[in-house]
Amino acid sequence: MPRKSNKVVDIRHQSGKTINTMELIIFGAITLYILVLIYSYFHSTPISGYEIQMGSLSISKTYTGMALREEEVIQSPYNGYINYFVREGERVSSRDTVYSIDESGKLSTLLTNGELGENTYTDDELSDFRSTIVQFNRIFSQKEFQTVYDFKYDIEGDIMKMVNLNMYQSLESLNQSSLNGMVNLCTTGKSGYFVYYTDGYEDITPEKLTNTLFDESTYEKTRLNNNELVDTSTAVGKLITSEKWSIAVPMDADYAAELEEEKYVKVKFVRTQESSWASVSVQKNGDDTFVILSFENSCTSFCTERFIEIEIQIDEEKGLKIPLSAIAEKTFFIIPAEYMSKGGENGNYGVSKEFYDENGNVVYEFVETTVYNSNEDEFYVDNENLSVGDYICKPNSTDKMAISKSGSLIGVYNMNKGYADFKQITILYQNDEYAIVSSNTQYGLTVYDRIVLDASSVSTGDFIFN
Questions:
Q1: CB of 403 within 8 A of CB of 387?
Q2: HSE (side-chain half, CA atoms, 13 Å) at 138
C-alpha cells in the first residue's frame, strides 16, 4: 500500500512539472508578442485617420466680368485749376458743390499757405479715414499693385471730404477779395454717385459688347488730380445715376444657356468676399456670347472698378465629404468579365491561372482576387497574385489569354479593419481642399468609415497604427 501511494505522488509530481513548462511557454509567447507589438509601435509612423461624414460643397467658377452702369460723363464749364470737394463714390445731390474751377490759379497757393484756416475733424471723420486704411491693408495683394493708386485717390477723397466744410466757409469771403471772384463752385446738376475717372466705356450696353473690350492690357483710365489745369469741356469725372447695374461675362454658349435656365445665381465678389444674388440673361452678339448678371444693389461698392473678379455659385453638390490629401491613384489589372468566376474555399471572385508543374505538365489553379470595380465587360482586380504575361483560362472553355491590360482607379485607404484597404471613389465635385464623392456605391465607402488622412503615407495591406 505505501509503495502504491508513493507511485501516485510521483505521477502527480511529474504532471506538475509538465503543466509548469506549458505555462512558461505560453507566457513567453505572449510576452514576445507584446514586445513585438511595442517595437512595431515605436518604430512605425502613426497614421492619422479621418471619419467620413455627409457634406456639401458649392460649385463655383471664377470669372472676370465688366461692370455696366448708367454713367454720365461730367464736363467742366470753365478753364482753370480743378479741386474736388467730395470723396470718390459718394452720393451727391443736384445742388451739392462737387468741385471748383479756379480761373486765377491763386487757390492752390492759398491752400498751400494755410490761408483758408485750420481744420478740425470729428471722431466720425477720423474713423472714416482709418477704416479706409484698414480696408486697403486687408485686401492688398502684391500681384495687383495698381490698387495702390486707387488707394491713393481714396485717401485724397477722404482728406478733401474733411477739409471741404472749412473751404466752403472761406471761399465766399475770398471770392470778394483775394481771388477776385475767379473761383467757380460747380455742381453736377443731377443726383448720383460721383466718380473721378473716365475710361470710354460709359456708353457700353449689352448690345455693344465684344470680346475685344475685355482685353485689360489695352484698358486705360483717365483721372484728374487736384490743382490740375483743365480746359472747357474737359471730362472731370462721371455720375452714376442708378443703383441698378450689371456685370457682363464672356462665356461658352452651352454653359451660358445652363445659367440662363437657373434664372438667378449667387455671385461672390472675390475682392470683398461678399455675395449677392443676380438675375441671369444672355446676350449674343454675332459669334460672341455674354452672360449678363443684373443686381439691384452693391453698385457703390464697385463704382470705381470696371473689371471685377467674381465667382458664380450655381448649386451645392452633396455626398461624402473627404479631404483631397486622402485621395490616391492605384493601378490594377483589367480582366474581361468572361474570364472571371467564383470559386475557392470562400467562393470569391478569381481566375483560372495556367502554369507548369515540376514535371512540365500544364495545370490550372484557381487564384482568388480582390475586385475593386467592375462592369458588364471588365473587372479591376489587384495584382498581388498575378503578373503581366500570366495566362488565364476562360471557364468551361479552351480559350486563354495573357494578362497585359491595366488601368488606374481613384480611391482612398479604408482603415476600419486595422490595415490599409483601398476603396474606389467617384468624385462628384472638388475644390482646393475637399471632394464630394458618391455614397453607398459598390466597392465604395459609407458614412462613418475611417480612412487614412494622408494617402501617401501607406500602401495597400499596411497595418495601421494610430
A1: yes
A2: 10
Q: Please report, for residues 10, 16, 18, 19, the alpha-carbon distance to residue 6 in angstroms, rounded to integers and kept in the order given.
A: 6, 15, 19, 20
If you average pLDDT over residues 41-64, what whole number do you get? Answer: 78
Average pLDDT over residues 346-352: 86
* CA dist., res. 280 & res. 341, Å (int): 55
Q: How far apart are CA 179 and CA 170, in angstroms?
A: 11
For the chain, what's the residue count? 466
User: Measured between alpha carbons, how far is 94 from 190 in angstroms, rounded to an integer?
Assistant: 4
Domain ranges of the chain: 49-56+324-457, 77-240
Of the CA atoms within 13 Å of residue 291, those in its CB half-sphere come to 27
Q: Could you tell me the pTM of the whole model?
A: 0.57
384-440 residue pLDDT tens: 788 898 999 998 888 999 998 999 999 999 988 888 889 989 888 888 889 999 887
Are 269 and 275 a contacting pair, CB within 8 Å?
Answer: yes
Contact 374, 380 (CB under 8 A): yes
Pairwise CA distance, residues 239 & 256, whole Å = 31
